[in-house]
Design a protein that fits this description.
single chain, 262 residues, mainly alpha, 2 domains, 9 helices
């Protein structure tokens, strides 16, 4: 009888301990990454390559996501607002929805799918083929050479991607509004400009920086801790994307609570 009671508790206990261990390892890894950012040497070439791969090459997928999201959001708000004769709020709600929430979150999730998987697979393959060990043999710190440039590049590039996605998403709502919903173009843009406040945009940019840090950190962490062989690299890639996505959604709630709870 005692085994029937203790076995489920043991399973739950092991799961909780494993979760807390993982959180602790990730937290230590992130703290070490930040500490290495402020200490030389710094590999500028790796940083610039990471900016190109994370920022510029992610722009098409972020832009496509944003423009269709903005258009769909405008259509849904118009359909809902028409029930209360409030169709005029479409420009304002599209603007605030894109800048505060949908722009940063969807942009972060798309970049997580593209960048976290790429980083984890690249670094995981380097570990499997012993290239990481070769860096240590050459007196090069893998954290500084592989992690710091990617994390810094993602943290700096993600707000720019969010700002671009916000603009494209609002444009998507604008194009749908004037072509399908009967809005006057000047009136639509004027309502958007008059309604938006600085912190609506600024909060989304701060979220973007946090999401970029999360995406690159998860990719580097799981890549450097990848198992051996193709199966290990695949598991690291999957874990990086899942962890980055969950942390983006969780941190989005915490940041929204901190910014707008009052």
């Amino acid at each position: 009888m005692s085994l029937v009671i203790t076995r489920p508790l043991a399973v739950i206990g092991r799961a909780v301990i494993g979760l807390l261990t993982g959180v602790g390892r990730v937290s230590i890894f992130a703290a070490e990454t930040v500490s290495h950012m402020v200490r030389p040497p710094f590999y500028w070439r790796e940083f610039l390559v990471a900016c190109l791969q994370i920022g510029w090459l992610s722009l098409p997928v972020v832009g496509m996501t944003a423009i269709f999201t903005g258009a769909a959001l405008a259509l849904q708000i118009y359909a809902g607002g028409s029930r209360f004769s409030a169709e005029f709020v479409v420009p304002q709600i599209v603007a605030i929805g894109m800048t505060r929430e949908l722009g940063p979150v969807l942009g972060g999730l798309m970049v997580a799918a593209r960048v976290a998987s790429s980083i984890a697979a690249e670094i995981g393959t380097m570990k499997v083929t012993e290239q990481v060990d070769a860096l240590v043999t050459l007196s090069t710190n893998p954290m500084k050479y592989l992690t710091v440039p990617r994390v810094l590049a993602a943290t700096l590039c993600m707000p720019l991607l969010v700002a671009t996605g916000d603009s494209i998403g609002i444009m998507g709502g604008y194009l749908l509004g004037i072509s399908r919903l009967g809005f006057n173009g000047h009136t639509y843009l004027q309502a958007t400009v008059d309604f938006l406040q600085f912190w609506d945009v600024g909060s989304g940019l701060v979220k973007g920086a946090v999401f970029g840090f999360i995406v690159a950190t998860m990719g580097c962490f799981y890549g450097l801790n990848s198992g051996r062989g193709a199966q290990g690299v695949g598991a690291a890639t999957k874990s990086a994307v899942v962890a980055a996505s969950v942390l983006i959604l969780a941190s989005n709630y915490l940041l929204t609570e901190a910014f707008f709870s009052s």
